[in-house]
Design a protein that fits this description.
The complex is a heterodimer of chains A (about 110) and B (about 775).
Chain A: E1 23-36, H1 55-59, E2 68-71, E3 76-78, H2 79-88, E4 101-104
Antiparallel strand pairs in A: 2-3, 2-4
Chain B: H1 8-23, H2 30-46, H3 50-74, H4 79-99, H5 105-108, H6 118-121, H7 126-159, H8 166-178, H9 187-239, H10 245-256, H11 261-265, H12 268-273, H13 277-287, H14 295-315, H15 317-322, H16 324-346, H17 350-364, E1 371-372, E2 375-376, E3 386-387, E4 391-392, H18 394-406, H19 410-414, H20 417-433, H21 437-453, H22 460-472, H23 477-503, E5 511-517, H24 518-521, H25 534-537, H26 539-550, E6 554-558, E7 564-571, E8 574-581, H27 582-588, E9 599-600, H28 601-608, H29 612-623, E10 633-635, E11 650-653, E12 659-661, E13 664-666, E14 668-672, H30 682-711, E15 713-715, H31 716-727, H32 735-747, E16 751-753, E17 760-763
Parallel strand pairs in B: 8-14
Antiparallel strand pairs in B: 1-4, 2-3, 7-8, 9-11, 10-11, 12-13, 15-17, 16-17
Helix pairs in contact in B: 1-2, 1-3, 3-4, 3-7, 4-7, 4-8, 7-8, 7-9, 8-9, 9-10, 9-13, 13-16, 14-16, 14-17, 16-17, 16-18, 18-20, 18-21, 20-22, 21-23, 22-23, 30-31, 30-32
The chains are: A alpha+beta (about 110), B mainly alpha (about 775).
């Protein structure tokens, strides 16, 4: 609003070169959705979709803290489900390989 | 002690004198009265035979007095004076019956257990009984029918408005009550006096009621009957023993109300139509005295509300189907009107409230004006397509109206915060009657999504209140929680956007990002491909880079059908800011390289990579935007329908585009072209409908299994009832769907039919 004097035919406009164009971008509100980068979207331990918190966290209202975990075998579960699981049996419930955490989502 | 033992004969004369005085109600001095006690005591102490002698003598004297009284009473031949004389004599005698027995109390003490007086307390007083039975035998039993008749005549006269000494009737009643063989025996009274009283009441009103109805009509009859019922209950309290009142009341109600029930009811509908609350209230009070008396009124009310409601809606169908505000307003007027009626006429009686609710439910869920067709393509259920019967569009309209109140709209700007709150509460009231709340939820969620993504909420606090209100009216928790999660998520995203802007320099003015949790917003919803203009494309890696640093294990998907922005359009008239969707942007930017070219539909499609249907919608929104005089884009086909575009249809930028305000062309201005376009892709409506159906099927199966698991064994009818109960806050399952799901569950061996009775199901673990 300040320097602009509406002289559109004049190419020596004070604004950036965008203004020479018929349509120029002023603002963009971009929308994206994130999801866990997983092969199967359901946690095989609690049977809840990984994008939702596991039942335990839903009940405790800790949805935001319920993250996914990936093993070396590339299978993924809720981190809290898996940490309970390994106390009993240190193998992946899906492939029976030894469970080694590859990464934890955040 | 040389004194001779006192003998009965010695004392009797003086006693007799006192007794006679008492009976005749002459003055008895204190001394005489005390002497009587003393004498009685003395005689009984010393003379063994005195007890019998005394009783005999007393009896003789009483009889003598009674026969005197008898002759005075019976000397009157005229019934009326007979009654008067009798009641006069009786009331004297009645008083004496309380005094005379006192000195003779020792007569009753049983010498064998003289110390133990407790037992004798409740025993009949011998003297009083002697007096009563003598009176009964000698006077009353002979003339009781005459007395009773004249008493009834008096009551009759009183009903006709004549005044008289009420004591006359009361005296007769007392005689009947007291002259029973013992104090607890009221049979003489019941069989004679009460019976006569009730019968005369009935015959009196039997003829009167008919007469009154004939000459004054039903409406005044109701007033009359009501006042008569009250009058008779006061009169009954005066003339009858308290225990007779229910019987009297029953008779009055029968003769005044029950016998004329049909005539009274025939006025009911007219009164409801005329909103005649006072008279309806009277009718309600009258008919409520009869068992099941108000049932027909309930039916009239329900029927009327339904007819009126549907007629109202039918009459303004055109406006209502287009304008959700008008529709909700119409419904609310109807509700308010009849809720007031039920309150004023029927004191909010629960039975009438139920009838009202049933009627509202029918109006709200009626499908004659507008329907919503829900169908699902065969997907999950052994290949068969599920088509549901049409449903009312009411829930959709309600959701639309909520959106108008919660979004920044002319409506929400016009109303105060309190007014908006009231209106939202009203919507929830209507929602209570909506059978298929899941449809409302779907639309509500879609609207909320749009408001949050476009930042177009009028009031964030109200948005969050609404979520709690929905919870309060019984919307299932999993749905409400999902809405709450959207609010949480959008806040997380706002923080992220701030961090992103801080990390950038220069571009931060232009771009805002929303990165949302797919679980909370749009699970499974289809994304639409688009080739972004370079200006936008450049941002993508920047954002992805930034996001990767913040989070790990996450993948991002761009939802360009949700994103939007502002562009500046410059031409010879001025510079205009346009709010557009990203699709509109992609299309418009095609002309940046060749501002004056005419570009074919096909070429725009190649440039934007939008699917055919989306491109049509997007172009249509640019060539035929309803709110402006001059369109931004022009084309070479007549503007009838977006279906008329062909591959060769040409489009070009309208260089004469300008905004007009107050009749003057503006050099500057802002125009929002997004409208309803955002977030609803061509396919999504159909998909949403399908999703509703799928969800219903799942919910039904889930509920059946839940019930079966609990009951193990259940009849078909019971299962249906429990199913409807469980699902009532979401939707009303159709009979057909229930049947299909049961069949499916049987096939899947979740349950089976009983071998002996196919109407019974058995759960199979």
């Amino acid at each position: 609003m300040t320097v602009n004097n509406n002289n559109n035919n004049n190419s020596s406009n004070a604004d950036s070169s965008n203004n020479n164009k018929l349509f120029s971008l002023k603002k963009w509100n971009a929308v994206a959705m994130w999801s866990w980068d997983v092969v199967s979207d359901t946690c095989a331990i609690c049977r809840v979709i990984l994008m939702d918190a596991c039942l335990r966290c839903q009940a405790d209202n800790k949805q935001d803290d319920c993250v996914a975990v990936w093993g070396e075998c590339n299978h993924s579960f809720h981190n809290c489900c898996m940490s309970l699981w390994v106390q009993q049996n240190n193998r992946c419930p899906l492939c029976q390989q030894e469970w080694i955490v590859q990464r934890i989502g955040k | 002690m040389t004194k001779i033992t006192p003998q009965f004969e010695d004392y009797w004369p003086s006693m007799q004198q006192a007794i006679s005085k008492l009976l005749h109600q002459l003055d008895v001095s204190k001394l005489e009265w005390q002497e009587l006690f003393w004498n009685v005591h003395n005689v009984l102490q010393w003379d063994e035979k005195a007890k019998d002698k005394l009783q005999d003598a007393l009896h003789r004297d009483v009889l003598e007095f009674i026969s005197e009284a008898q002759s005075t009473v019976l000397s009157h031949h005229d019934d009326q004076s007979l009654l008067k004389a009798y009641v006069a004599a009786w009331s004297k005698f009645f008083v004496q019956c309380n005094y005379l027995p006192l000195p003779f109390a020792p007569l009753m003490t049983n010498p064998n257990k003289s110390s133990n007086t407790k037992n004798t307390i409740n025993e009949e007083n011998i003297v009083r009984k002697l007096m009563y039975s003598s009176w009964n035998e000698n006077i009353f039993s002979n003339i009781k029918h005459r007395l009773q008749d004249s008493a009834m005549k008096l009551v009759h006269a009183e009903r006709n408005g004549e005044a008289f000494d009420t004591q006359l009737v009361i005296g007769v009643r007392e005689s009947f009550v007291n002259l029973g063989s013992n104090a607890n025996d009221k049979s003489i009274y019941i069989e004679n006096f009460e019976k006569a009283y009730i019968e005369s009441t009935e015959s009196f009103y039997h003829s009167k009621a008919a007469e009154y109805l004939l000459s004054y009509g039903v409406q005044s009859y109701m007033v009359w009957a009501d006042s008569k019922l009250k009058e008779e209950s006061t009169r009954g309290a005066k003339y009858l023993e308290p225990f007779s009142l229910p019987a009297l009341n029953d008779t009055c109600v029968r003769v005044l109300v029950t016998n004329n029930k049909d005539l009274i009811l025939s006025e009911c509908l007219g009164m409801i139509q005329g909103n005649n609350t006072n008279k309806l209230n009277l009718m309600f009070k009258l008919l409520d005295r009869i068992e099941e008396g108000v049932e027909p009124m309930l039916n009239y009310l329900e029927e009327h509300i339904v007819n009126q409601g549907l007629a109202d809606i039918m009459a303004s169908a055109e406006i209502i189907t287009q304008d959700s505000e008008k529709y909700v307003e119409k419904l609310l007027n109807l509700f308010t009107k009849y809720s007031t009626l039920v309150k004023e006429a029927f004191n909010d009686d629960p039975r009438f409230l139920t009838a009202r609710d049933k009627a509202f439910k029918q109006v709200v869920n009626d499908t004659s004006v507008f329907k919503l067709e829900l169908a699902s393509r065969p997907k999950m259920n052994n290949g068969q397509a599920t088509k549901l019967p049409p449903e009312s569009r009411c829930p959709e309209m309600l959701a639309n109206f909520c959106d108008m109140l919660l979004r920044k709209t002319p409506l929400s700007r016009r109303l105060t915060s309190e007014e908006i709150e009231i209106k939202l509460k009203e919507v929830l009231l209507v929602l209570k009657y909506v059978v298929n709340k899941d449809v409302f939820m779907r639309y509500h969620k879609a609207h909320l999504t749009r408001r949050l993504i476009l930042d177009s909420s009028a009031d964030n606090e109200k948005e969050e209140n609404m979520v709690e209100w929905l919870r309060e009216v019984g919307v299932p928790a999993d749905f409400v929680n999902k809405l709450a999660r959207m609010f949480q998520d959008i806040k997380v995203s706002e923080d992220l956007n701030q961090q992103f802007k801080n990390s950038q320099n220069g571009t931060s003015e232009i771009i805002n990002i929303k990165i949302l949790n797919v679980g909370a917003w749009a699970r499974g919803s289809e994304r639409v491909q688009v080739s972004l203009p370079l200006e936008l494309e450049d941002f993508i890696p920047e954002v992805e880079e930034f996001y990767k640093k913040k989070h790990s294990g996450r993948k991002l998907q761009w939802y360009h059908h949700m994103s939007n922005g502002t562009i500046c359009f410059s031409n010879q008239y001025g510079r205009y800011d346009l709010d557009v969707t990203t699709f509109q942007m992609a299309v418009l930017f095609t002309w940046n390289e060749r501002p004056t070219d005419k570009i074919s539909f096909e070429n725009i499609r190649l440039a934007s990579e939008l699917p055919d249907a989306e491109l049509r919608r997007t172009l249509w929104s640019l060539v035929a935007f309803p709110k402006v005089k001059t369109q931004i884009i022009l084309c070479d086909v007549p503007l009838k329908s977006m279906k008329d575009f062909t591959d060769t249809t040409l489009f070009w930028v309208n260089q004469d585009f300008h905004l007009i305000k107050n009749g003057k062309p503006q050099r500057r201005g802002k125009l929002n072209l997004i409208g309803r376009l955002q977030l609803s892709t061509e396919k999504s409506v159909e998909e949403d409908n399908e999703k509703i159906v799928q969800l219903r099927i799942l919910r039904t199966q889930e509920a059946i299994v839940k019930i079966m698991k609990m009951r193990k064994r259940i009849t078909n009818a019971q299962l249906q009832t429990e199913l409807v109960e469980i699902l009532k806050n979401m939707f009303l399952p159709s009979k057909k769907m229930i049947k299909e799901q049961i069949e499916w569950l049987i096939e899947q061996k979740y349950m089976r039919r009983d071998d002996d009775n196919i109407g019974v199901f058995i759960y199979m673990a």
